[in-house]
Amino acid sequence: MLNFTHHIPTTIHFGEGQLSRLAELKESGKNVLLVYGGGSIKKTGLYDAVMNILAENGLCVTELSGVQPNPRIESVREGIRLCRENKIDMVLAVGGGSSIDCAKVIAAGVFYDGDAWDLVLDRSNITKALPIYSVLTIAATGSEMDTVAVISDMTKNEKWSTGSPLMAPKMSILDPSLTFTVSKKQTAAGTADIISHTLENYFTPVKGAFFQARMCEALLKTVIHYGPIAYAEPENYEARANLMWAGSFAINGVLSDGADVPWCVHPIEHELSAFYDVTHGEGLALITPYWMEYVLSEDTAWRFGEYGRNVFGLEGDDDMEVGKQAIACTREFFKKLGLPATLSELNIDATHFDIMAEKAARRCARTFVPLTKEDIRKILVSAL
Ligand code: NZQ
Ligand code: ZN
Q1: If 0-12 CB within 10 Å is exposed, 13-18 middle and 19+ buried, where does residue 267 land?
Q2: Is the CB of 267 under 6 A from ligand 1?
Q3: Cβ(168) – ligand 1 distance below 6 Å
Q4: For residue 360, what are the contacts with CB-CB under 8 A and spacing of at least 6?
Q5: Angle at 227 between CA 226 and CA 230, to 5 degrees
Q6: How many CB atoms lie within 10 A of CB 19?
Q7: Which residues of 26-35 are buried (b: 16+ CB within 10 A; e: fewer)?
Q8: What is the pLDDT along the chain (384 residues), one digit of tens a residue?
């Protein structure tokens, strides 16, 4: 196990009725930038509820709406402008990972003199940030409890993650009932995202992190059990609650501390989103089984064997054989959630594979199995 420092500064208020905790924003000042997406919070009534609580507590609100899935750098720039113009004290995201990620880079960008894209390309430019708060409306990215933000510049076909401890939310409200209205498509994509975060941590070459691996398996079993229930019964509180809490833990450092490894499926997905604006979780579900097939070998079979036996309850001592069956189970699970299984289903052909593979390879040199540009190109071709 590697050395690590574990520190999660985010206060979580979990459960029904926790929205009233927004009163705590008063601790950070008076002027709030409210960041949200394309309007789902208006349809569900959450917008009115949030605005009422903020008004009751004497908070002044400036709004940045229309943050898109795969949030754009243009929204970040606009948010920074609004913060400076309105002397904003704190940023509140109400929505999913896209709104929260956008809020994080806005909060840091206010203190940076150059263009906000510099913060995305080079996290050392993040030196200070406004307090960040979130009300989570979809279980998926874990942005509500982590230090990461992912921003796209579609004019350049670029999507990169950045991060800083300064960007960890100060407080996040997780009320599972706020996710009852999430569509089947987004429920499936969110489930796939949580699974992918866990698998990225699970497939580590670091030996001796037994505890972390068992926690990964518990989380995978939870999400594999409850994802389909939430998909079939959107208002099943128990399913939504388990997905929501599992989503936060998949990426808040608990699974990775001591076993840390650069992620490899995410960089490949980020290229799909950068060129084709793919829904993040759909891209991950699609690539994961092909990546698994590519990296399964005599050297890596031990972990695939554990995955098959401990997560899917497969039997047998032959790691290679159990590993192959586990990959088939993974593929089948995603298929049952209606997630795409080939790039052709998303109308993606090989046109940009060279540049996509080249860019993804920049992040894959030290992954579970290091991947070159050619390796990634082959994985993409197999996924056609
Ligand atoms: O925009 P609105 O109208 O709010 O609708 C959203 C959006 O269309 C909708 N939605 C969210 N909550 C809803 C709802 N619809 C009905 N009822 C609700 N309660 O769902 C759609 C997707 O929302 P989005 O915020 O984009 O989803 P998600 O949370 O999956 O975020 C995806 C983004 O996060 C990044 C992804 O790359 C992608 O850009 N990631 C962020 C990470 C992080 N910060 O740590 C890590 C992840 O690996 C990921 O890369
Ligand atoms: Zn993800």
Answers
A1: buried
A2: no
A3: no
A4: 267, 268, 270, 271, 371, 376
A5: 85
A6: 18
A7: eebeebbbbb
A8: 999 999 999 999 999 999 999 999 999 999 999 999 999 999 999 999 999 999 999 999 999 999 999 999 999 999 999 999 999 999 999 999 999 999 999 999 999 999 999 999 999 999 999 999 999 999 999 999 999 999 999 999 999 999 999 999 999 999 999 999 999 999 999 999 999 999 999 999 999 999 999 999 999 999 999 999 999 999 999 999 999 999 999 999 999 999 999 999 999 999 999 999 999 999 999 999 999 999 999 999 999 999 999 999 999 999 999 999 999 999 999 999 999 999 999 999 999 999 999 999 999 999 999 999 999 999 999 999
The Cα 349–Cα 30 span in angstroms is 50
CA 182 to chain centroid: 16
Q: Which residues on neighbouring strands pair with residue 159, listed in sequence order?
A: 152
Identity (one letter) of the amino acid at 113? Answer: D
Per-residue pLDDT reduced to its tens digit, 140-183? 999 999 999 999 999 999 999 999 999 999 999 999 999 999 99
Helix axes 280-295, 373-382, angle to 10 degrees: 110
Between the alpha carbon of residue 102 and those of residues 26, 65, 354, the distances in Å are 22, 11, 29
CA separation for the pair 377, 384 (Å, rounded)? 11
HSE of 136, CA atoms in CB hemisphere, 13 A: 31
CA distance 195 to 215: 13
Q: What's the residue count for the chain?
A: 384
Taking the C-alpha atoms of residue 161 and residue 121, their distance in angstroms, rounded to an integer, is 8
Testing ligand 1's pocket by substitution, the residue of 19, 34, 40, 240 carrying the most ligand atoms inside 8 A of its CB is 40
Q: Distance between CA 28 and CA 90 in Å, rounded?
A: 7
For the question of whether the overall pTM of this predicted structure is more than 0.90, the answer is: yes
Ligand 1 touching residue 199 (CB < 6 A): no
Atom of ligand 1 at shortest range from CA of 190: 30
